[in-house]
């Protein structure tokens, strides 16, 4: 197992922590967790613990939103054909499903389009524009892509096809010539929150359109509205709520920061999923063994809000929903993912979910084979394994799984990684994944003269290049990583939020900690460190599954013992079993098993004799 650095966070002012603890009536550990997340006042804590749709920003603050709404109004008024265009991943397909499903209620002359991963690649394609031309489309709304589609926009303009870009990726030097370019990451965009998902941008388009149609805005002060306007505001909120399940799925799967608007949107989206899931999501969740509560249970316990046997959280969306929806675009066609998310009939949803789950099974087989081959090649060549970066090409690797393979290699070797395969147009195409301390998008910028295309963000990107540039690219990328990445960054880091004792873990502590959810980047599940522990001899440790350590933990300061699971920590079995004292860093989580929920320690690492 690769050694890990334990870093205890100290990026907070103790005086601020103490003041916040007093004002909220909580202990210093809870106050510390809040301050670490940028919450320093009573009012900020109120917003953090009680998300509200009123906290969403005015969508018309986004550069070009007014132009976008004017153009959509024109298309609907003139009955022009509209095309909702999106990327083939979860973010793109959920964005298409959201925007299409809303405007389809207002405008019959509308279609959607997802590019083929193999034949068209990422983003707005010339083939997609040809489809729009052939079918008489006058307006394309492109979601989760398009910010770098300069040539494609010029091509569409030749045929009188307007494009509204709704993207969240970093722009290039030149913006496409479109009737509206919506992207908070534009340098000239004053929109306050920059980290929306692609589906989040689609939601802001729908929000803006609804607001101008209904005549009120979420950001309006209720005290300044008439009674009629207040009723319209409540109607607006109810109409918008029905789309937030899709936004929550995109936020979880695209791994955008769980802060600001994203946290508000995800909070309400989870409530929708847990109380009134759309048929497509319910159907796909059955393959993650998430079943709805029985009619008898619902009748006998009407106070329970949850539709399912357990409350779903962001982690469930990440691991149970995201990979399956992604699998359709990786293996077959992402059109199936959109159809699943749009399905209103349970039988149709069930059939699509079965097909998509089968794609996911095939995807898992393909990525396992490719990952094993990549590891064999690395371990067999000292020159490769000793590099600061990994860049691998596999002729037979499936294009749909190279991003997953890159992620697997980052987990195993902890270094910036790019995995490539052949495309149908004789290019090398693939995905880059990075580690916390390295900006892979900036590195690709330095290699742009060797690339045909690249795009993404700091931790992940897509890339394509000509075969003759491969060797030079490998050396250039390695040189950049070696020059810019700190030496200590090659050792994985576990960031610890607080050192606690088991006696600190009270029912009140757990109740408040649960309210920190939904969790995600910049609001991760807190990691705690507890020292001087031992294994409970009444529940001996054992290795389960694929090298996972299952054990029970005791501390001298508390009568409570806690069940613990350490994924991939099976090598520590003998030392834990022989009653050595140890320290652990871990996350507290609820483990649901056979109708029972208990607190469990998800152990990230163990140290002995400290």
Mean of all residue-level pLDDT scores? 93
The appropriate CATH architecture of the largest domain is: Alpha-Beta Complex
**Share of helical residues:** 40-55%
Dominant shape = globular
How are the secondary structure elements laid out?
Blueprint: E1 5-8, H1 14-24, H2 28-36, H3 42-49, H4 65-77, E2 81-86, H5 90-103, E3 110-113, H6 126-134, E4 137-143, H7 150-158, E5 162-166, E6 180-182, H8 198-214, H9 227-241, H10 244-254, H11 260-275, H12 279-285, H13 295-300, H14 314-331, H15 335-342, H16 346-380, H17 382-385, E7 390-393, H18 402-413, E8 417-422, E9 428-433, H19 440-446, E10 453-456, E11 460-465, H20 470-484, E12 493-496, E13 498-499, H21 507-514, E14 528-535, E15 542-544, E16 548-555, E17 562-566, H22 573-577, E18 582-593, E19 596-608
Parallel strand pairs: 1-12, 2-3, 2-4, 4-5, 5-6, 7-8, 13-14, 17-19
Antiparallel strand pairs: 8-9, 9-11, 10-11, 14-16, 14-18, 15-16, 16-17, 18-19
Structure description:
This protein has 610 residues and is of the alpha/beta class. The protein has three domains: 59-276, inorganic pyrophosphatase (n-terminal core) (Alpha-Beta Complex); 381-490, Diaminopimelate Epimerase, Chain A, domain 1 (Roll); 494-608, OB fold (Dihydrolipoamide Acetyltransferase, E2P) (Beta Barrel), CATH 2.40.50.460. The chain is built from 22 helices and 19 strands. The protein has a five-stranded parallel β-sheet with strand order 3-2-4-5-6, sandwiched between helices. A five-stranded mixed β-sheet has the order 7-8-9-11-10. Strand 18 (582-593) and strand 19 (596-608) form a beta hairpin. Helix 16 (346-380) crosses helix 18 (402-413).
């Amino acid at each position: 197992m690769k050694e890990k650095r334990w870093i205890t966070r100290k990026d907070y002012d103790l005086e601020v922590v103490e003041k916040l603890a007093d004002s909220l009536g909580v202990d210093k550990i809870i106050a510390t967790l809040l301050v670490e997340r940028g919450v320093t006042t009573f009012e900020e804590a109120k917003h953090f613990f009680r998300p509200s749709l009123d906290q969403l920003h005015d969508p018309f603050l986004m550069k070009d939103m007014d132009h976008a709404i004017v153009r959509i109004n024109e298309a609907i008024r003139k009955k022009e054909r509209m095309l909702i265009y999106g990327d083939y991943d979860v973010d793109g397909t959920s964005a298409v499903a959201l925007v299409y499903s809303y405007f389809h209620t207002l405008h019959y002359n509308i279609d959607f389009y997802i590019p083929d991963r193999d034949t068209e690649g990422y983003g707005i394609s010339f083939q997609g524009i040809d489809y729009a031309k052939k079918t008489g489309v006058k307006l394309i709304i492109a979601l989760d892509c398009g910010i770098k589609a300069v040539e494609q926009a010029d091509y569409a303009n030749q045929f009188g096809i307007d494009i509204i870009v709704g993207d969240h990726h970093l722009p290039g030097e030149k913006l496409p010539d479109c009737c509206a370019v919506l992207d908070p990451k534009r340098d000239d965009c004053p929109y306050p929150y920059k980290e929306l998902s692609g589906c989040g941008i689609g939601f802001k388009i729908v929000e803006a359109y609804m607001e101008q149609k209904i005549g009120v805005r979420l950001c309006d002060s209720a005290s300044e509205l008439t009674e009629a306007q207040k009723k319209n505001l409540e109607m607006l909120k109810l109409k918008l709520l029905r789309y937030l399940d899709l936004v929550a799925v995109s936020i979880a799967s695209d791994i955008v920061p769980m802060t600001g608007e994203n946290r508000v949107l995800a909070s309400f989206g989870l409530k929708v999923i847990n109380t009134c899931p759309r048929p497509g999501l319910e159907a796909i969740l059955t393959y993650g063994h998430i079943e709805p509560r029985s009619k008898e249970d619902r009748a006998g316990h009407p106070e329970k809000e949850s539709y399912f046997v357990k409350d779903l959280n962001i982690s469930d969306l990440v691991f149970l929903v995201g990979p399956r929806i992604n699998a359709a675009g990786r293996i077959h066609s992402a059109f199936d993912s959109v159809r699943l998310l749009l399905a209103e009939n349970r039988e149709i949803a069930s059939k699509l979910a079965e097909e998509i789950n089968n794609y996911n099974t095939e995807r898992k087989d393909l990525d396992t084979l490719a990952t094993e081959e990549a590891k064999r090649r690395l371990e067999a060549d000292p020159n490769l394994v000793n590099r600061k970066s990994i860049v691998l090409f596999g002729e037979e690797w499936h294009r749909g799984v190279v991003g997953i393979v890159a992620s697997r290699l980052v987990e195993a070797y902890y270094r910036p990684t790019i995995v490539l395969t052949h495309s149908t147009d004789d290019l090398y195409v693939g995905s880059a994944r990075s580690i916390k301390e390295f900006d892979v998008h900036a590195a690709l910028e330095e290699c742009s003269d060797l690339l045909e295309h690249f795009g993404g963000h700091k931790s992940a990107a897509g890339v394509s290049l000509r075969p003759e540039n491969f060797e030079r690219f490998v050396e250039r990328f390695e040189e950049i990583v070696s020059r810019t990445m700190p030496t200590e960054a090659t050792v994985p880091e576990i960031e610890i939020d607080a050192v606690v004792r088991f006696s600190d873990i009270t029912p009140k502590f757990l109740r408040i900690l649960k309210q920190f959810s939904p969790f995600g980047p910049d609001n991760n599940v807190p990691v705690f460190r507890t020292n001087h522990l031992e294994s409970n001899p009444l529940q001996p440790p054992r290795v389960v599954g694929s090298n996972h350590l299952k054990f029970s933990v005791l501390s001298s300061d508390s009568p409570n013992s806690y069940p613990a699971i350490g994924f991939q920590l099976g090598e520590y079995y003998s030392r834990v079993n022989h009653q050595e004292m140890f320290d652990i860093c871990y996350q507290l989580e609820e483990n649901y098993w056979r109708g029972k929920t208990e607190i469990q320690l998800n152990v990230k690492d163990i140290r002995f004799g400290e």
